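Please fill in the sequence for the structure shown.

STRUCTURE ENCODING:
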């Protein structure tokens, strides 16, 4: 159809020598007997595939029961299983010029379990039962929406699953072979925290292969245990001044990094305000904290810039960076390259 109808939702007109873009609905509302026929053929396939999925999902009615309705029975149980009302289909055909989200990002099965609950089903029923009066409903928009619904049902029907490296998730083509549509890629945010697949507006979910997640989790647990062992052995945990500092920090911030507070406390204790400024400055510049890698590779004051007015703030900043350096000795984050790059994940329909 796109060879003969420029499928767009905007038009460019020239006014007083200027190009102006205006909204345009005429192309999507273009109708014909041929488009009406395509719409009916498409929706017949929707009925067929929704019934096959209904039987696969153990719908209560048996095959051959003439009372089975593809929408109120079949699409309803499909939605209960996979929340298809929330799944988005992207119109990605390069030969379409659709600019509005309402035309480019579709939820073709939203309300589809209700009798004529969608734009495409209203059009389908209208042109099937009264083509003479309702031919105008067999239009470009209706066939695109119906095709998107059929495409999404086919994604579930095929139930494809494959293995991919985590770092390749963003490179993966989720058109599933379609020249018109694509589904969204599954969410994989912080998958290393429990390896729990995240339901989203994509029909797919993703999780690490069991052996990969076990490797990630073992490394993380060991690093966590090493850091905890270090923390429990620190004598400052018996000092009321340090415990008071931890309490004060927890009231200011939602999450307190205890090792950072420990390093900051330790550096302040070594360079107390009671010392003369010149002595404090010398101790700071010669300290392990000042010369640690993280402090030296981040923006910090030059020795000549340290004054009586800013030295205390600089001690606190350097102390926190020293805490980061201490954490780095135990939390080497050796699991990150596996989790974020080489780790194998399985993409599948839940």
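FILLED IN BY: designer on duty
SEQUENCE:
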């Amino acid at each position: 159809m796109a060879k003969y109808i420029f499928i767009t939702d905007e038009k460019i007109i020239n006014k007083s020598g200027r190009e102006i873009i205006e909204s345009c609905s005429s192309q999507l509302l273009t109708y014909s007997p041929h488009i009406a026929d395509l719409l009916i053929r498409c929706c017949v396939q929707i009925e067929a595939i929704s019934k096959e999925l209904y039987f696969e999902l153990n719908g209560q009615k048996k095959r051959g029961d003439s009372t089975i309705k593809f929408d109120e029975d079949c699409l309803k149980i499909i939605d209960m299983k996979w929340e298809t009302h929330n799944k988005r289909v992207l119109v990605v055909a390069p030969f379409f010029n659709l600019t509005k989200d309402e035309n480019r990002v579709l939820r073709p099965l939203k309300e589809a379990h209700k009798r004529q609950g969608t734009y495409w089903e209203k059009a389908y029923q209208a042109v099937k039962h009264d083509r003479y009066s309702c031919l105008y409903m067999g239009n470009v928009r209706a066939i695109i929406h119906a095709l998107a619904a059929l495409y999404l049902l086919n994604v579930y029907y095929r139930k494809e699953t494959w293995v991919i490296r985590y770092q390749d998730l963003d490179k993966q083509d989720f058109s599933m072979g379609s020249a018109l549509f694509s589904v969204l890629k599954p969410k994989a945010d912080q998958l290393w925290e429990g390896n729990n697949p995240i339901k989203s507006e994509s029909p797919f979910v993703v999780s690490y292969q069991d052996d990969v997640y076990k490797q990630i989790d073992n490394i993380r647990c060991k690093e966590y245990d090493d850091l905890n062992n270090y923390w429990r052995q620190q004598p400052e945990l018996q000092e009321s001044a340090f415990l008071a500092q931890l309490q004060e920090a927890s009231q200011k911030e939602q999450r307190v990094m205890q090792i950072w507070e420990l390093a900051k406390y330790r550096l302040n204790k070594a360079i107390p305000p009671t010392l003369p400024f010149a002595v404090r400055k010398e101790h700071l510049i010669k300290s392990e904290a000042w010369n640690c890698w993280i402090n030296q590779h981040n923006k910090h004051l030059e020795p000549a810039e340290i004054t009586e007015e800013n030295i205390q703030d600089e001690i606190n900043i350097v102390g926190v960076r020293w805490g980061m350096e201490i954490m780095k000795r135990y939390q080497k984050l050796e699991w990150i390259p596996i989790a974020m790059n080489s780790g194998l994940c399985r993409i599948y329909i839940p």
